[in-house]
Amino acid sequence: MAHTHQFCTFYLANICFGLDVKKVQEVIRYQSITRVPLAPPAVRGLINLRGQIVPAIDLRQCLDISESDPTYQKSSMAWRNSSTSNLFNYFFPSLEQLPLNAIVQANDEVISLLVDEVGEVLEISECSFEPPPQTLKGKARELIQGAYKLNDRLLLILDTEKVFEVSKRSD
Amino acid sequence: MDEDIKAFLADNYENLGHIERDLVDLEQNPTDKDLLVRIYRSLHTIKGNCGFMAFGKLEALTHAGENLLSRVRDKELILNIEIINTLLQLVDTIHQSCICINATGEESDSDYSELIQRLNDLQHTAYEDKHLIIALNSENVADSLSTPPSVPSNYTQIPNLTKPSIYDNQTKNGKVNSKEAPTPLAAAQTVPSIRVDINLLDKLINLVGELVLVRNQILQFDSIQDRAGFEAASQNLNRVTTELQEAVMKTRMQPISTIWSKFPRAIRDMAIASGKQVQVEIEGEDTELDKTIIEAIKDPLTHIIRNCIDHGIEMPDVRKLSGKPESGQVRLYAFHESGYVNIEIIDDGAGIDPERLKNKALSLGLITGEQFNHLSDGEAINLIFLPGFSTADKVTCLSGRGIGMDVVKTNIEKVGGVVEISSQRKLGTVFKLKIPLTLAIIPALIVTSAGDRYAIPQMSLAELVRLEGEQAKRGIEYIHKAPVYRLRGKLLPLVYLNRELQLENKEQKSNLQSLDEVVNIVVVVQANTPFGLVVDSIDDTQEIVVKPLGKLLKDTPGFAGATILGDGRVALILDVRSIAQRSGVFSEAQTKARLEQEGASQQQTDDGREMLLLFEGLPKSRMAIPLSMVLRLEEIPITAVEKVGDLTIVQYCDRILPLIDLASVFSPQPLSCTKKKGATTRTNNSHSSLLENQLLQMIVVSCSNGQTVGLAVSRILDIVMEKLTFTAATSRPGVNAIAVIKGQVTEILDLEALNQWISN
User: Fold this and answer.
1) Are the CB atoms for B671 and B733 separated by under 8 Å?
2) Which helix or strand (DSSP H or E) is residue B199 part of?
3) pLDDT tens-digit profile of B249-307?
4) For residue B676, what pLDDT is reported?
5) What mean pLDDT value characterizes chain B?
6) Residue limits of the CheW-like domain (chain A) (predicted)?
7) Are B424 and B351 in contact (CB under 8 A)?
8) What is the C-alpha separation between B490 and B500, in angstroms, rounded?
9) How many Å lie between the alpha carbon of A16 and the closest alpha carbon of chain B?
10) What gap in Å lies between CA A53 and CA A112, rounded to an integer?
11) Can you spell out the DSSP letters for B209-259?
């Protein structure tokens, strides 16, 4: 039997991403963020994680996802199958906008990745993995290790160490 | 005494105590392997320590004991009463020797060979003498002990102190009561101490830090929801947290003598090596500092002292020529002051020649020609802190103090401290170090800029200035593009925090500010240079817990760390030094030159003008006192005013502050009435006057005798700089003079007289 891996899935601009489940410490709801002036642009600010001060990373910035890009329109709810939550979001649109914090370990430090929504933990067989194509360029190429071919979509795997390094850059 | 010996003795006393206790326990449970191993280990430690300290005789003695024990441990020897007795005797002998070392620093002269011989003999003989092996718990113990066969009198060197009591106990009860038996030898000698893993201590401090934060959070709720029970509980939490914080901090505190005690010797050696004569004077060596800070300042201090001897103190003949005593003096002072430790290193040597420093800096290309012309002497001396100034190429023997001084400065600043240097040619040099007691929890001022709160460590704060109305509009002037404010007649360069942090685009606050007509300036001092940080509002002072920013933000300039405020939000701690560097305050030598040398005579300027606090003591009655006497202006609720006997008091900063209600003092009724009557007058008046308004304006002043009193006034008006032109002499008691200030007749109060009056 082929090896399997467990991934914690989340959505960002309607793309499904996966993080190695061992790297994910916890997922918490939106925390107020204190911005850090003069910090690298990918660092949105600092949050208070039960007394620990943790930098919050804007993954959109890391991955060069711009809000206006039509590919990433937020309107589609294709994978969000919980209708109640949709209704909830309909009545409280502002809450829906607030990102969640995926607290991950990277480079011996704890960082928070700001994501739109968190999915389930998937156990996937190794054989459905493929590295990214040559046409993938830019910062995303560094961050995305590859994709798992799921039935209805692709699960893009993020390298947390790389996320840490990319968000440290000041450009 | 030598630190090492102290540590050695403390260690030995501790181990001896353990051995003694365990030996007595072992007597009860002769088969307990763990006890035996423990004794062995303790003895082994003592032996190792003796070897390390080169106490050869003690080492040989302990070695013999160890041999004996190891045979017992390896079951080659069966434990008997004789072995225990001899081992106890060994403990006593080591202890005695330690006392001797404590007194003289040397091993005692006593001869241990007999005891060693005995220990060695026991190793071989005891096995054969099976009849001596007794079941120690049986009643036989008493019999065998009552006729002590094993301990000839000449071996028991100090048995009278301890053993008889044990044995008496034994003969009576047949058993040793292990609770009574261990004579607290160690406890009698040293204050009992335990050593705690530094990591554990760090963890404790972190936890206390958390507790402080929770406390702050709870206290904030307290002010919102006013429930009696909750209030009491949170007050209790406040107290417990504060005490716990102090206690845990204390565990890390060490007296500065841990590093200072080595200096006299080092100075002596250095002086001899350089052919100079130096006397050392040390004061305040029991001043305590956090262990980590002690370690951080050790090298900088040594460096400064070396410079004092090397470059400061002149050769004896030079000193004689300039009329100074041949032997120079280096004085070390340490004292606590408002949460910081001040260390002063003063020498009466040649001082620093600013001209030479300037020339050298110019030749090294560290300053420009223009700067050269504008640098004041005070600034020139600070050149020695410039990196690169400290080259192997000495400036001269006289003024080459720059060697490694930038390292000294960086190291001190790393622990949040500041170094100041002042020097007078031919008279000497003073190094002043101001160092926080601890790094973990610091007092800070919370300010808001562009919607975010920032903490400024109290350390770098000088004062706060608030400009309102007209002042706000016109107070800030520009030298081309650089904003400045005239602070007591000197130009203070201003730095807009929001602009410096590149935040103004987001909030457009800089425009709003002019509309608000309020400008808050936080005057901070960095490297003797004050500058004003303009912030949107000044919130509060708080004790904050410093947390690191982590690797991700380690290269981000401007911040020294972060903290969590009472509402759970994160606030960044400003690094004043980095802000100053970024904004270029340091390079503004021109502005700086004018700001230099604001001495103690800040308020009393040359032309006889004086800073005065103007207020209305009684409605419509203008009064003033010198600002130098004013500690703070406060607004207190009427309910805080209490009465004790004839005195009106308020509780202020954990102290009782006598309150002088000016309205009653200068009441229309004459004050010349008797004391009793005066008191009643006061009471009545203070009631009527105090009840009128809910908030009471109070000026906290300090009198010349060091006492602090509060003045209750009806309104605080202004601070003015005036040359006093007296127009009339005293009109009534408590008034020093009458002057015209800003066109209005104003009474200058005589605080001493007022204070006298209230204390009578």
Assistant:
1) yes
2) helix B198-224
3) 778 788 888 788 777 777 777 787 788 888 888 888 888 888 878 888 888 888 888 88
4) 39
5) 73
6) 4-169
7) yes
8) 23
9) 26
10) 10
11) HHHHHHHHHHHHHHHHS--HHHHHHHHHHHHHHHHHHHHHHHHTEEETHHH
The overall pTM is greater than 0.80? no
Cβ-based contacts of B547 with chain A (< 8 Å): 52-53
Half-sphere exposure of B498 (CA within 13 A, CB side): 24
pLDDT confidence of B726, banded at 50, 70, 90? Answer: low
Residues on chain A touching B574 (C-beta within 8 angstroms): none
CA dist B683 and B681 (Å) reads: 5
Per-residue model confidence (pLDDT) at position A113: 92
Buried b (16+ CB within 10 A) or exposed e, B424-458: eeeebbbbebbbbbbbbbbbbbbbbbbebbbbbbb
CB-CB neighbors (< 8 A) of B571 in chain A: 34
What are the chain B neighbours of A34 within 8 Å (beta carbons)?
452, 562, 569-572
Whether residue B611 contacts residue B721, with contact meaning beta carbons closer than 8 Å, is answered with yes
CB B60 within 8 A of CB B120: no
- Positive or negative torsion for Cα B171, B175, B176, B180: negative
Region of A16 please: left (phi>0), alpha (psi -120 to 50) or beta.
beta
- Residue in the structure block whose two tokens are 């092996």: B133
Residue of A nearest to B571 (CA): A34
Residue B559 near chain A (CB below 8 Å):
yes
Lowest mean pLDDT among B339-348, B350-359, B589-598, B631-640: B589-598
Contact B572 A109 (CB under 8 A): no
Across the interface, do A39 and B553 touch by the CB < 8 Å criterion? yes
Q: Tell me the C-alpha to C-alpha distance, in Å, between residue B109 and each of B43, B46, B86, B104.
A: 21, 19, 21, 11
B452 touches chain A (CB under 8 A): yes
Nearest to A43 among B213, B452, B553 (CB): B553
Which of A111, A43, A158 minimizes the C-alpha distance to B555?
A43
CB B542 within 8 A of CB B565: yes
Task: Tell me the ipTM for this assembly.
Answer: 0.81
From residue A151, how far is each of A80, A124, B152, B249, B597 by CA, in Å? Answer: 16, 11, 94, 59, 77
For B350, the 3-state DSSP assignment is coil
* A76-97 burial code (b ≥16 CB/10 A, e <16): eeeeeeeeeeeeebeeeeeeee
Please tell me if residue B547 touches chain A, with a CB cutoff of 8 Å: yes
Closest Cα partner for B650 from B664, B662, B636? B636
pLDDT in tens, A131-152: 888 888 888 888 899 999 888 8
- B503–A53 C-beta distance less than 8 A: no
What is the distance between the alpha carbons of residues B587 and B386, in angstroms, rounded to a whole number?
12
Restricting to A residues 21-80, those with a Cβ less than 8 Å away from any Cβ of B are 32, 34-40, 43, 45-48, 51-55
**Cα torsion B148, B150, B155, B159: sign:** negative
List CB contacts (< 8 A) between B565 and chain A. Answer: none
- Are the beta carbons of A107 and B503 separated by less than 8 Å? no
**CB-CB neighbors (< 8 A) of A55 in chain B:** 549-550, 552-553
Consecutive H or E run containing B364: none
Q: Inspect the interface and report whether the beta carbons of A51 and B570 lie closer than 8 Å.
A: no
CB contact under 8 A, B501 and A37: yes
Lookup: tokens for B123: 């190793």
Closest-CA residue to B723 (of B624, B621, B599): B624
Cα(B738)–Cα(B747) distance, integer angstroms: 5
pLDDT in tens, B572-623: 999 887 888 777 765 444 334 444 433 333 333 445 567 788 888 777 788 8
Residues of B in contact with A46 (CB under 8 A): 549, 562, 570, 572
